[in-house]
Specification:
single chain; alpha/beta; two-stranded antiparallel ribbon; disordered N terminus
């Protein structure tokens, strides 16, 4: 581990392919973001492919010296990695998330007040009833029944919702079985275990039932004409019950998870109530994060049509051109930062020189300014919520998605934060990633800030 120019390099000096984790044991760079076997309880109930790992959260809980009962905020909480880790360490945890399915997942993953035996027993009954209905249709969940699809009247999602789905993301028969199972789950809407049953189906849809594959982007892989639905869901339920049983005898603080915009948090979180922040905002690139969760969002009814999708996209930090609107004005607050304006101008000049004229390409420079303007508004709002001396960790990454113009995200966010009164403590190198557009290794960093006058 080396320290140079106010930066900590987590790479092992003896072997630059290794990164040192807490306790000195190295992680390989390529495995740094993967979920370790010991971290699967709660975290693996449902998780973004691009989520940062629990061990990174633990590192900064330790680094910040957080004590039992102190309050940890994640204003871009995603599916709840920071919240789960904070809760396990007996911290009070608060999350804000604009994506409805991710907000739902974080809420469920931090709700441990469910009787695991009731969850398991009631869901076994749901599975039994669903299999009985399938049997009446001559469908066996454990056998490939796709050969007689022409004899079946299959359930599907409404037309407006289906238009939101990636083509062939799920095959007709697995979708039919999933909707029948969902129908039986919904009969328990007023039961305490209902949300857990629903989240188990969300995870099963993505990883066991669908045809989706995940690389740098979500896409369609091998087509499954049929897949076991009920059994796969029930296996997830049993894992949930096992995790809940392991913590049933302990006392943990309740987590609060809000559906909201990270640029407008003052109505959600009490002023000067937060001891620390560990989070990862979106990066300025062309990843439409709503596509990653589109299948489960649509099938489970979190997004019903394009109007609803657009409505919640408007609550997101503008990080890609598919989420930019004429009325957006976050870019106005960023004109005072010459480095950010210079990058936007370089992107636009390169676009003109290369004669790139699509609507998306014409928006590259604007979305860059909108992104940093949104982060300015976020950090400005956040300062009202922090206690004096509160410590803040932002996991961010360099990007070169816009015509190969390098965006040093961490460096630019430090400039914004310092203009608002934050102190830049240091920047840690978390890992490197290969940029497919340029072939360069991009830095993924943790920017450490402190708010206020308390330097103890």
């Amino acid at each position: 581990m080396t320290i140079e120019n106010n930066q900590i390099n987590l790479f092992d000096d003896a072997d630059p392919t290794n990164i040192v984790k807490t306790g000195g044991e190295p992680f390989k760079n390529g495995n740094m973001n993967k979920l370790q076997l010991s971290d699967r309880p709660f975290h693996n109930w449902y998780r973004f492919v691009l989520s940062y790992p629990p061990h990174l959260v633990r590192r900064y809980i330790d680094d910040f010296g957080l004590k039992v009962g102190e309050t940890l905020l994640d204003p871009f909480c995603g599916t709840g990695t920071t919240l789960v880790e904070g809760k396990l360490r007996r911290l009070r945890t608060v999350g804000i998330e604009a994506n409805p399915i991710a907000h739902f997942a974080a809420s469920v993953k931090t709700n441990w007040d469910i009787n695991p035996d009731v969850l398991k027993g009631e869901c076994e009954n749901i599975a039994k009833r669903t299999n009985e209905i399938l049997a009446l249709q001559n469908i066996n969940d454990l056998q490939d029944c796709s050969d007689h699809l022409d004899k079946l009247q299959l359930k599907t999602v409404p037309d407006d919702a289906e238009k939101l789905l990636l083509k062939n993301s799920i095959s007709p028969l697995p979708l039919h079985k999933s909707l029948l199972l969902l129908q039986e789950i919904r009969k328990n809407k007023d039961r305490p275990f209902y949300n857990h049953a629903l989240l188990a189906l969300a995870k099963t849809l993505v990883y066991d039932i669908s045809n989706l594959k995940f690389g740098p982007e979500v896409g369609v892989g091998k087509i499954k004409r049929d897949a076991p639905v009920v059994l796969s869901w029930l296996q997830e339920i049993r894992r949930m019950a096992s995790d809940l049983k392991a913590v049933s005898a302990a006392n943990y603080f309740e987590s609060k998870v809000f559906l909201g915009d990270a640029r407008r948090m003052n109505d959600l979180v009490e002023e000067a109530s937060i001891d620390a922040v560990i989070t990862s905002p979106p990066y300025p690139n062309e990843k439409d994060y709503t596509r990653t969760t589109r299948l489960e969002s649509v099938i489970l009814g979190f997004v019903k049509d394009r109007k609803e999708l657009q409505s919640y996209k408007k609550t997101l930090i503008r990080s890609n051109t598919r989420g930019v609107y004429k009325s957006d004005d976050d870019d106005k607050v960023i004109e005072q930062f010459p480095d950010i304006m210079a990058i936007a101008n370089e992107i636009e000049n390169r676009r003109v020189a290369m004669n790139k004229t699509s609507g998306f390409e014409r928006a590259y420079a604007r979305v860059t300014k909108l992104y940093f303007g949104g982060m300015y508004k976020h950090l400005q709002q956040l300062s009202l919520l922090l206690k004096p001396g509160a410590q803040v960790a932002y996991v961010v990454g360099d990007q070169a998605s816009y015509l190969r113009v390098m965006i040093r995200t961490g460096e630019l966010l430090v400039q914004i934060a310092e203009s608002l009164g934050y102190k830049h403590v240091r920047t840690d190198l978390f890992r490197t990633r290969l940029a497919t557009a340029t072939g360069e290794q991009l830095r993924e960093e943790v920017v450490i800030l402190k708010w206020g006058e308390n330097d103890e």
